[in-house]
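Chapter review: from sequence to fold.
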Amino acid sequence: MAAPAADKAYLEIEGGDPLHCLFNPESLQVSIRTSWEGDRTPGIEAPQVEWRGGESGTMKLDLLFDTSRKGEPVTDHTDRLIKLLKVDPNLPGYSEAKQNGRPPWVIFHWGKFHSFKAVVTDLDLRFTYFSSSGEPLRANASLTLKQYAPEPLWPAQNPTSGTPLPARSHQVQPGETLDRVAARYYDDPTAWRQVAQANGIRDPFNVRPGTRVDVPTVEA
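The token string follows.
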């Protein structure tokens, strides 16, 4: 499905059609944190701090959905927001038997502004206008997005992926599947097959935590 006009905001959704914003947000709040820590020492006013790594960025935005002119239920839009916090069985790596699954990632686009790839961690909905039969026609939605994977540059200047990171070794974490490994290094979760093939993995959805896998270099 084609993206909306450049001046209209929308949410790109992994594996699905974009969610168009009926009204552009009035503001965006972006938080980027790093971790510096130091041990307290008696007699020292301030400890020497050490770099402990970066943290996931977050973005908060408020969206207005109003369908009162058309008389259509606004829940057609808000239900799609709710699904962004639900496990999607159509995404790579899903296995009901192994209880592997996750919600989709999203990217917020508004003109030349493109957010980091993120997951929705919080959603607050407030319905403010109803039809005579009690059908919701207007809703305010407050979303909190958390960065899904590291990115070399943000905000991005276009929504396309960059060149994957060089080949390296990755240690699989608890609950992590190869599609998440591919998303981290290639910015493309569907590239998990290349990781599986490079490591001779027959069952890509049953990789034990602590396993070391080689992440091959892939042409851009």
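Two observations follow directly from the output. The radius of gyration is 21 Å. Residues 1-6, 157-166 have pLDDT under 50 and may be disordered.
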